[in-house]
Amino acid sequence: MEIGLLAAFLGGALALLSPCGALLLPGFFASTVTTRARLLPHAVVFYLGLVITLVPLGIGAGALGALLTGHRALLIGGTSLVLIVLGAVHALGLGFDLSRMLPGIDRAQQASHRGTGLPRTFLLGAVGGVAGFCAGPILGAVLTLAMGQGSTILAGILLAAYGAGMVVPLMLLAALWERLGPRARSLMRGREFTVLGRRLHTTTVLTGLVIIALGILFWSTNGLVTMPSLIPTSALARWQENVGVLSSTGAQIGVIVALALLALGLWWRWDRRRHLRTEPTVTLPATGPVKR
Questions:
Q1: Considering Cα of 185, then 187, then 190, then 195, what sign does the dihedral take?
Q2: Whole-number pLDDT of residue 88
Q3: What percent of the chain lies above the pLDDT cut of 70?
Q4: Three-state DSSP class for 273?
Q5: Which of 87, 92, 175, 279 gets the highest tally of CB atoms within 10 A of its CB?
């Protein structure tokens, strides 16, 4: 499951940075960059918009996969094949827009252009999670992976991770956009190149290769069941033994107090730096030559 969450998160990030997904950036910046203090609320609202659209799709895919759990070999084979095909389609730039299958998506897109503030951010999330010619194969791959889990809960979590993959880099970009130079922005957008007379894009090719690799991995690990854990079992066992020390009430209170003191210390340091930056500088009047 860990590799599935990472793949879904990475898919969301690459969908955001794809040539079509990058169109979301100006709309989000228009709502947040003028009020930097409201960046976090806008990001949370944007994520809620994503979740309200993506998670039901994931649950539906998981429910479909649950119906096929009796034919697990067929489910794994079909999921792997679809992932590989979607990866190849995306790498070649042959995208599609899954949002056209949803009723009322056109009205939501128009409303997202007319709205302002938090309502507009919410609509951008609700529409941006499924819309986009470039992002269609990526979302399709994540939905296919969710169906392969055979569980509605795990499928919903995967789509929530996909949405988080869009929000986290979007927040970082919104916070650092003014500090990014032309070279950094150019690297972020990627570039086009030509192979056998066909125009390709570095981001779509990279994403397509990731999806293809995920399809091969899904097949070779029996639906990620035999995939080794990212954290060794011995490390998990030691961690569980160490956590047992915190079972006492005194230890738990001590941890809470330590975390509170750490938070207060970090806040004090940040507030002190802010005051130093905003403290007016005193300019001494110029003095003439001293007469003797």
A1: positive
A2: 92
A3: 64
A4: helix
A5: 87
C-alpha torsion 144→146→149→153, nearest 10: -160
Q: Which of 10-14, 23-27, 92-96 has the lowest mean pLDDT?
A: 23-27
As a whole number of angstroms, the distance between CA 189 and CA 156 comes to 29
What backbone phi and psi angles, to 5 degrees, belong to 189? -75, -15
Could you write out the three-class secondary structure of the chain?
CHHHHHHHHHHHHHHHHCCCHHHHHHHHHHHHCCCHHHHHHHHHHHHHHHHHHHHHHHHHHHHHHHHCHHHHHHHHHHHHHHHHHHHHHHHCCCCCCHHHHCCCHHHHHHHHHHCCHHHHHHHHHHHHCCCCCCCHHHHHHHHHHHHHHCCHHHHHHHHHHHHHHHHHHHHHHHHHHHHCCHHHHHHHHCCEEEECCEEEEHHHHHHHHHHHHHHHHHHHCCCCCCCCCCCCHHHHHHHHHHHHHHHCHHHHHHHHHHHHHHHHHHHHHHHHHHHHHHCCCCCCCCCCCCCC
Cβ proximity of 121 and 42 under 8 Å: yes
CA distance 171 to 179: 14
Token pair 């056998």 in the structure block, residue:
196
In the predicted model, is pLDDT for residue 95 greater than 90?
Answer: no
Alpha-carbon distance of 85 to 97, in angstroms, equals 16
The more confident residue out of 102 and 89 is: 89
**What value does the mean pLDDT take over residues 38-52?**
84
- Which residues are CB-neighbours of 99 under 8 A, at least 6 positions away? 105, 127, 130, 131, 132
pTM of the model: 0.68
Q: Which residue has the higher pLDDT, 280 or 45?
A: 45
Alpha-carbon span 180 to 193, nearest angstrom: 24
Q: What pLDDT sits at residue 85?
A: 93
